[in-house]
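ok so i was messing around last nite and threw this chain in just to see what happens. nothing serious, just curious
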Amino acid sequence: MRAKIIFSLSLLIPFALVFIYVWTTATDLAYRDDMYLIKGGFIESYLKGTLTFADLWRPTIAARILGYNLLQIANIKWFSMNSRLIILLVPFLMLSSALLIYRDYRKSLAPDRSPEFIAATFLVLTLLIFNVIQWEGLSFGYGFVFQSPMPFFIASFISLELFLTTGARKYWPLAFIMPALAVLVFGGTHSFAFAPALGSTFLCYLLTRRSHLTKNFWFRALMISIFLSAMAFLYMYRISYNDYFPGDSLFHHVDIVLAYPFEALQFLLAAFGASIVGVDAFFACAYFSFHTIVAVGLVVLFLYALALVLFFRSRMYERTYLPLFLIMQTIWYLGFMTMGRFVAYEIDYGMTSYGMASHYTCVSIYGLVAMAWIFIFILTRPVRLNALLKGTLYAGFVMIFAGLLLTAAVEWRIQPSRKAYFEQIRSIAMRVDTATPEELSEFPELFRDSLRLLREHRLNIYRTAPADRE
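result:
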C-alpha cells in the first residue's frame, strides 16, 4: 500500500501540473495547421456531405494524420468542433506513456530495489514526461498530432517485444493491432523515425541475444517483418499525392544538408540542446546564444552516447530494451527533422531557432527519460562505481533538470501573455469581416475562408455566437 501511495504521488503530481497548464492556456480556436484542413480540406468535404476515405487519408507534409482527422469529425458531430476538448486529451496521452514506461521501469529495478524506492525514483522520469517545454503540444488542438504518436509507439514496442520473445498467443493480437494504430492512424511524421528506431533496436537484440534465438523466434520475426513491411508500403503509397503542402516533404531539404554539413550539424545539435533548454528560455535568457545551445546539444549527445555504452556494458538489455528504443526514436526523429527543416535562410541569414521548435520536444523528451532511466539503473546497482563516472552521471542529472527547470519557469511566466495572445486572435477571428488589415495579418486568405466556413456552420468559436455575429 505504501508503494502504491508513493507511485500515485510520483505520477499524479506532475500530471496535475501539466493538466493545469493545459486547462488555463489551451485555446478553443482552430489554430495554425488546423486551418489548412478546413477550407479545401476534409472538414469542408464533411460539411458538404462529400467526405470520402481519400479525404481522411490525404497527406500533410508527406505524413498521414488519419486518427486526428477521425477525432475531429467526431468533435464536429458531437461537440461542434471544440478544439479545447481535443487538447485536454493530451495530458492523458502523456499519462498513458508514463504508465507504459513504468511497467518496464519497475521490471528493470525490481530484483535489487524495494517497491517504495522504485515508485519514488519514478518521479524523476515523470518530471521529464510532464514538462511544459512541450507547450506547443499543450496549447491548441493540432498539438494532438504532435503528442498522440508516442504512447502508441511505446505500446507497439512492448507488444512486439512480448510477441517475439515469448510467442504466447495472448500477445499476438496486440503485436499486430498496436503497430497498425501507431503508424497508420496516429503516427503522423513520427512514423518515419519509428521504422529505423524499431529496426536499430531489433538489430541490437539479435546481436546481444543471438545464442538464445530459436526457430520459432525466427518464424515470428519473419511474420511480423512481412506485416510491418506491408504496413509501410500502405503508408507510403502515393504519399505525395494531393498533399496539403505540395512540394514539401521530410527529405525536402536534404540537398542543402549535404551542401552545408557543418551548419546542418549545428542545427541538429541545437535541436538536442533545445530538448532541455526550450526555445522560449533561449530567447528569455540574455546569456544564451545559438552557439551556447549548440554546446548544450553537444553535451546532451555525449550523455546519450554514455547512456548507450552503460546500457550495453551493464547488460541492462537482459531486463528491458525500451530505453534503447526511446533513445533511437529521438535520434532518428531529430535527424529526419534536420533533413526536412534545415533551409536556405539558415545559411543566408545565420542560424535561427527553426530547429528548436517546442513540438519536437514531444519526442525528444522521451530520449531524456530513457537516459535518466539508464543512469538510475547504473547508480542503484550493487556495483561500486568509480568517482569520475558517478560524478558524470550526477552532473548529467543536474544539467538536464537545471535546463528544464529554467524552461518551466519561463513558460509559466509567459503563460498569461500566451493566453492573452490566444484571446486576441480569437477576438479577431470573431470579427473576420470587419477587422483591420493589420489585425488580419494573423490570418492569410485561406485562414479567413476557413473561419467563414466555420462561422457558416456555427462551429468552433462560432458555435455559441449570437445571431448578429453571423
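not much to say yet. The chain has a mean pLDDT of 92.
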